[in-house]
Each structure stands twice: as C-alpha cells, then as structure tokens.
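Morning F.,

Quick status update on the modeling queue. The single chain you submitted on Monday has been processed. Sequence for confirmation:
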Amino acid sequence: MKKNPYSPGILQYIPFFYVIWSDDLVTASELNVVQKAIDQDDKLSKNEKRNLLDWLHPKNPPSNEELKQWKQVVSNSEVKLVESETYPLATFSQKVVCAYHNTCPFNESLKHIEINLGIQPNHYNHLFDVEVIHEVTSDFYDPEEIDSLLKGKHAQVVDEFRGVLKNDLFNWDIHRTKEAFREVVLKQVQFLAERGYGALAYPKAYGGAEDMEGYAQVFENMMFVDGSLTIKFGVQVGLFGGSIQKLGTKKHHDRYLADAGKANLLGCFAMTETGHGSNVRGIKTTATYDKESDRIIVHTPGKNDNKEYIGNALHSKMASVFAQLIVNGKNQGVHAVLVPLRDSNHELLEGIRVEDNGYKLGLNGVDNGKIWFDQVSVPRENLLNKYGSINDDGSYHSEIKNPNKRFFTMLGTLVGGRICVARAGLGGAKLALAIAVKHALKRRQFNDSIKIQEDLLMDYPSHQLRLTPLIASAYVYHMTLDKMMAVYCDETVPDKRKVETQVAGLKSIITWYANDAIQECREACGGKGYLLENRIADLKGDVDIFTTFEGDNTVLLQLAAKGVLSDFKAEFNSAGFASVLKILGIQISDTLTTINPLYSNKVDKDHLYNPKFHKHAFEYRRRRLTYTLAMRIRNYIKKGIPSYQAFLKVQTHLLSLGKAYSVELAYDTFTDFVADMKDDKNKALFQKLGTLYALHHIREDAAWFVEQGYIGGTKSKAIRQRVERLCTELRPHIGALVDGFGIPEHCISAPIAQ
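Structure tokens below.
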C-alpha cells in the first residue's frame, strides 16, 4: 500500500476539501453543508471530525502548503477520475482511499455534499494531476422529452412539418446569384403552400386550420432551413394574406384568401416608405376616392414617398398598399387597399414601377423592391374595409370614430407578425447555438500536458459563460412567445392593447438577443464560424434585419415604455397626457422604500437562486424606472415644455424602462410555465435555466442596481460568481439542451457540427 499521512476517514474528504478551497466561491451556506455532513457521518471518530471541522473556518482557511499536500496525496493515488459516474467526485474520493488503505466503502455523506453543492466534474478536473476520463455530454436528460415540452400542444403540426422538410428541395446550399436563390425560395414557398401550411392560420372555410399558434411554431422551424424561405413565406401568407384576413371583409376573403394561402396569388405588403420608415402614420402615398368613377386612385406624390424594401415585390401579382385614404377631400387616415401590380404574363400594369433593391447583407433569396404608383385606379371594393369603408353614396363610415384608436386597432391586428419575427429570430439563434455547442463538444484546443489529450472547448469556463446564458435565454423566450401568441389568439380577450405593448418590447429584446447570440456563436467557432458552409455567417446576415422590420426595435421599446406609463396606451399626445399622469399617480402612490442594507448584501445560494429575489429585483427596477421617468416628464411639462419635446428629453430613459419591462415579463412568464410542470426531473432543469437567465440579466445591469443601492458590491460579485457556477453546473447537460431544441439532424448541415 502507498503511504499517506491521513486516516481513511479523513482521506475520503480530502478531494472535497481541496475542490472547495481551490474555488473562490466559498460561502457560509456551502461550508454549513459540509459541516452538517461531517456531523452526521457516524463512521468518523471524534478526532477525525474535529480535524475536518478545523479546516472549515472561512477566516482561517488551510494554508497553501496544506493545499499542496492534499493535491499531492490525491495525485499520487493514480486514480482515474470518471466523469460519467453517477457521483463522480464521491466515487473518485473513495477510490483514492482504496489506493492507500484496505477499506473503501461508499460514503453517503460525500454524495450528500456533492449533490447539495452542485459540484460538477468540470469544477475540478484540472485541479488534480490525474487522468480524467471525459464525458462529452451527459445522457441524464432526454432531448426528446425536452423537445416535447417546447412543442407542447403543437407537437403534431411541428412533427409533420419537420417531416416535410426532409424533401431534397429544402437542402441548404450556397447560392451564387440572388436570381437563382430567389427561384429556389419561391419553389419552397409554393411547395409548403400546396401542402396547407400557407393557410394554417386562416379560417377553415378558406382551406385553413385556424391555428395561428401552430403557424408561429412552424414559422420558427422554417429558420432551420433558411432565413429567406422564412421571410418570403411570412410576407406571402402572414403579411399579404394576413392583411386580407385581418383588415378585409367576407368579399375579400371569398375572392382572395384561399389563393393567397396556396400561393396561387402571389402578393406583397406595401407599407414602409423610403422617406418615412417606422412612421406609418406619416406615410405619403395617397388613396383618393373618385366619386364620379367610383374608384380609388393610388398615387405616390413625391420622390421619397415610394414603398421601400417590399418583400415579394418582383414575384407579386398584387400588393396590399397602405395609404392615406382621402374621401370627399378629407383625410381619414391610413387604410389598406389591394392594388394589382402585374397581368397574367407577369408584365407590370400601367402606372406601376418596381425596382429591385439589389443585394443585401442577408436574405438574398427574398425579392425586395421599391414600388411607385402613378395615378393607379382600382375599384372601390379593393379597400380592405373591416375598420373603415366607403358607402355607395360616396361617404366614409367607420364604427371606430376616433382616428387614433382606429389607426392603432388596424395595426394591432397585425401584432401576430411581430411575434413571428421574434420567433424567427429565436429559431436562428437556436440553430447557431446548436452548431456552436456541437462544435465545442468535439473541438479540442490547448492543455498544460503533452501527455494528455487537449481539452474540449466546452470544458473551458469562458466558453461555458459565453454560450450557456444564451441557451437559457432561448428556453425563456420560447415559452414567453408561446404564451404571447396564445393570448393574442384568445377570442375571449377582445382588447389586445396590453398584448400589443408586451409584444412590442419582447420583439425588441428577443431579436437583439438573437443577433448577439449568433455573433457570439460565430466567434465561439473561430475561423470555421466565418465559413458560409457552416451556416452561422449566413444566419448572421439574415437575422440582422429582424431588429428593423415589423417595427424598429428602438421605436418599439419606446412604445412598450409608454404603454407601461399609461397602463395600456402605446402613444401619447398632449391632450391626453394629464389623464396619463393621473393613472400613473395612482399606480405609484405607494412610494418605493429604501432597500435594507442586509438585503442588498445577502449572498447565500438559497437567496440568490430564489425566484422571489429575481422577481423582486425585476419589479423594483421597472417600478423605479417608471416612477423616475414620470417625475422627469411631469417636471418638464410644468416648465411649459410640450409633451413631445419632454419625451425626446427622456428618450434613453424610455428605452431602459422598455427593456426592463420586457425582461421582467419574459422571466415571469417562464417561471409561471415552470411552476405548472408536473415532471420533477425536467422541472429542476428548467428552474436552473430560469435562475441563470435572471442572474445573468441582473449581472448585466449590475451598475444600475448598485447605483440604486439595491445590491452592494459584495452581492454584485456573488451574482457574477453564481452565473459562472451555474454555467458549469449545466455543462454536463449542454448537449441535451441544444438537442432539446428539436432541430432535425438533416437541417444541421454545418460540417463543424457533424
């Protein structure tokens, strides 16, 4: 037997003590776990217990010489550390005892410590000079079970759709010209439309399934094939067909909706203008009713008043054109009019001019273009008249008398598009994360020994920290968008203004998240991530624009913040501002109290991992930002500054509130979902993902929380360390988590992911 200075009872704890004291994250609560285990270990003598407990004093830690001796004893045992063991460190510790003594029974107290401290092999596999038998990823969690949780009630439609994607038509490839790329994408859209996916959200009378929620899931899954397919499909059936469905009436549905869903009638959604961007209310294209001919004249009045960046512009036969409706000389505000663009030979009709936008940063399979209208005449029936119509006598009529309310009601019907854009961005992020993680689970680089195999990228703490919070966010945002679409589709909730505010903020933070995640994945894959064949570069170009269309993110965050201020409204005007402040005054009458210093520096694990702490932190941030923002605006108004100018002065404050509101909403929605989970095993995993999401976001905004006195420096440091620890704890399950996204293997075509 080899010699060592420790008894079997003490020796079995040495590896644990070395891991604990080599880790900077040593808290009183963790030491209490070890102390309790030692106290309850009835196989230890009094002297052994006393010796062990003497090494557990935070103010009097073991000396460096003692730590070196522990490491040497463990290393000299020549025991192999097997990561795939059920309790790797406890089993390893017992084998170390076996190497020096004739006894080595498994100690349940050691198992208790390993479980309660959340110690994972990659916390310590570099600490000892022993051979480590690596486990690339754990099979403790079943990716199919996780995928089922994400699909929820939409499992059948998602699974069937993924089966359709096996057709060779959807094989990803590099296209050298935009023209060739566009033809492939057009065929893909038509193929899916012919199989009923175009009409999925439409009424059954028009070939649909009335399943908008299922459509959103399918829309995300399209990103696994290609961004251009996703967006062109969305323009055809979601925007063009959706405008007919949501803004039109039965006569429009009967004539156009089925053909739009089957892609027999190709159309585009002509809202945005070159000179007016996100300011839909300020668009200049006019739709003037001519009573004598009983027709509507659509016209582009100025040089920069043309429709811009219109998807499907070159393939379309018809456009849903948003214009200022002028009846009897009075502007009735923005309405949508169906305008034919091309004849049966695909030649442009008189008065129509279309130009190709050319090559873009991404989405080059989508035929974006500019459109001008020169006194184009269409029948009065082409006005999509659900919310405003022109009577037979030439008069205008709307059930919604207030022009502002009518405008926002019209746009509110298209909120589903914003949810789908966020879902598409999320799909792109998931694919990039899956590729980056699969690469990191096989790519090796560096080691401090030429005798030992190089380390996996995924075993580096820095690599875990850059990817794991992004994976946790993907799960949080998936469940949040599911919930938002369910609320949006709920006919028992006729007033959609609240969900409009929520979606405005969520679309912003999720599409920004998607871009950040894809960029991180690109860098995490090194030079290989820059190659087109590995898909991340393509995703980067495609998803970039998601922050701009369906509402510029900066504009949408301000709308979300204004919605918070007014409790539901998405836009202010000077006349309504006093009532807004009155509502707000009621909401914040319970003035925010000063945070207790004991709370601001509380650092134990149970507190930092507690959802009550996360919810309190997010709520405090949102309420504090709301209160201070309102007071700033009120003070400007009191000084005689117009409300519009007052809002300009607090614009960055609005953005902070919009983001804070949206992060809180996402976290609360996710924790509500987790609370209802029945499976304890997967529930524990999802709880950990939620904890990582919360602490990651608190850490990102730590400067604000410290400024407000909500957390102290000690707590800020502890949160940072806990984020790193959580990433390491989730490392064994990282493969299962990305496989749990349910991305079909044939869609992960990147060579580095194989």
